[in-house]
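Sharing a chain and its predicted structure for anyone who wants a worked example. Both blocks are below, sequence first, tokens second.
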Amino acid sequence: MNVRGGMGSPASLRRWSGGVAQLDVLVAVALGGALGATARHELAVALPTAPGRYPWATFWINVAGSFLLGFLLVLLLERFPPTRYVRPFLGSGLLGALTTMSTFLVEAAVLIKDGHVATALLYVLGSVAAGLAVASAGISAARRIPIRQREAA
């Protein structure tokens, strides 16, 4: 992992003391999670999936989240000074709750259980391929943003 906050780094060890995260960072994650989960629920309600059909709502939510996470992490780790709350709030909280591995897997399992194996395979392979592609695109897009040089005071 990297020096700017990976597991085992000095920053990581400061955040975790005795296995308990610092409360202020947990609050940032929880607030972001509340917003992300609410947005995800509203999108799922707006784009319902009929039984046996391709789960487009979860697919598009996860694909968009993959792009945004790739873009966001480059900005936060490579372009802006480190912050205590932005990455936990936006990355783990908002985008972590907006995108959802559990719904993705349950939808795939239900498709298989109901005999829609081809749809399930298309969903799983399409989601993984699209997620990786757009995360890479988000990373590339963020790296194209020029770094502003600070002017000497």
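Comments welcome. The longest helix spans residues 117-143.
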